[in-house]
Amino acid sequence: MTAPARQVAVVTGGANGLGEAIVRRLHTGGCQVAIADLDGSAADSLAEELDGSGATAKGYPVDVSVPAELAGLRTEVLDDFGEVHILVNNAALTRARPLLEITAEELETVMAVNFSGTFHACQLFGSYLAERGYGRIVNIASLAGQNGGTTTGGHYASSKGAILTATKVFARELAARGVTVNAVSPGPQDSPAVHSIVGEDNLDALARNIPVGRLGDPAFIAEMVALLASPGAASVTGACWDANGGLYLR
Ligand SMILES: NC(=O)c1ccc[n+]([C@@H]2O[C@H](COP(=O)([O-])OP(=O)(O)OC[C@H]3O[C@@H](n4cnc5c(N)ncnc54)[C@H](O)[C@@H]3O)[C@@H](O)[C@H]2O)c1
């Protein structure tokens, strides 16, 4: 199947932070966007701001850790927009905590949202996209998933490492069916989550510790996602594109 002119994109965790930047970039680029977020009212507000008519942007209240909710999301988006071409798995939880203080319950929660949510969404939307013969999946990983992280929590880092492995597994499985699966792996971004985890007073020190001397720009993460999600990116699959300011070189 050749790439369709009109693209429908589902972005999980699309109501805030990097997800919001991705939604805005894809919408500006001409996509219809399904903003799937636990924070349904923020998703609705963003959709309303982008397109009050609802024709090209709609919010969906979804907990990605619940497979039945992801299945419901797929059904609803297909009912509303008729098709899906792009899935961006961006929703995640960060629980900064020393390794030995992580409870079994918190480990399960972080893995369920970050890893299982991504895995189930890749399965659900991946099977639909493969059947149609065209699709782009972009998983948002993290530098922590590559180097183990320092402040983000061992469960968070482990979940992101698992996402990088799943990205390769799904890429290999879906490659011959027109669906690419890639990851973008950000280092610390100039984003609300980093401001709140690190604290406003510590941002300069954090930036000085990054070889390029600055935090990343969420709008540029969105550019990377948009490029990987574009029809022309047909030969890129199973890749992990880093944006960490030189903190991790491989
Ligand atoms: N901000 C950074 O510096 C940074 C660095 C590396 C990786 N990342 C990754 O980028 C992505 C976005 O990060 P962010 O900083 O914008 O985070 P954020 O916390 O600002 O936004 C996350 C969004 O996901 C939603 N969400 C949380 N749990 C959910 C669930 N169970 N179901 C559906 N939605 C849920 C939240 O409501 C929120 O809108 C995440 O995958 C994160 O791990 C961010």
Q: What is the fold's blueprint, element by element?
A:
Elements: E1 8-12, H1 17-28, E2 32-37, H2 40-50, E3 57-61, H3 67-81, E4 86-89, H4 104-132, E5 135-140, H5 144-147, H6 154-174, E6 179-186, H7 192-198, H8 203-208, H9 218-228, E7 240-243
Parallel strand pairs: 1-2, 1-4, 2-3, 4-5, 5-6, 6-7
The protein binds nicotinamide-adenine-dinucleotide.
Describe the protein's architecture and organization:
- By secondary structure, the protein is α/β, with parallel strands linked by helices.
- It has a single domain, classed as Rossmann fold (3-Layer(aba) Sandwich), CATH 3.40.50.720.
- Helix content is 46%, strand content 15%.
- It has helices at 17-28, 40-50, 67-81, 104-132, 144-147, 154-174, 192-198, 203-208, 218-228; strands spanning 8-12, 32-37, 57-61, 86-89, 135-140, 179-186, 240-243.
- Strand 4 (86-89), helix 4 and strand 5 form a beta-alpha-beta unit.
- Helix 1 (17-28) crosses helix 9 (218-228), helix 3 packs parallel to helix 4 (104-132) and helix 4 runs parallel beside helix 6.
- The radius of gyration is 17 Å and the shape is globular.
- The mean pLDDT is 97.
Comma- or semicolon-separated keywords:
seven-stranded parallel β-sheet, 250 residues, Rossmann fold, 15% strand, binds nicotinamide-adenine-dinucleotide, 9 helices, 7 strands, alpha/beta
Give the CA-CA distance, first to last residue.
Answer: 35 Å
Count of all domains: 1
Can you tell me the CATH architecture? 3-Layer(aba) Sandwich
What overall geometry do the principal axes of the alpha carbons give? globular
How many H/I helices?
A: 9
Give, in order, the helices and strands: EHEHEHEHEHHEHHHE
> Nearest-angstrom radius of gyration?
17 Å
Instruction: Give the CATH superfamily.
Output: NAD(P)-binding Rossmann-like Domain
Strand order, largest beta sheet: 3-2-1-4-5-6-7
Poorly predicted residue ranges: none
DSSP helix fraction = 40-55%
How is the CATH topology named? Rossmann fold
Look at the structure and give the mean pLDDT.
Answer: 97
Q: Quick one: how many beta strands? A: 7
CATH top level class name: Alpha Beta
How much β-strand is present in the residues? 15-25%
Q: The biggest beta sheet, please?
A: 7 strands, parallel
User: What is the SS-derived class?
Assistant: alpha/beta
Bound molecules: nicotinamide-adenine-dinucleotide
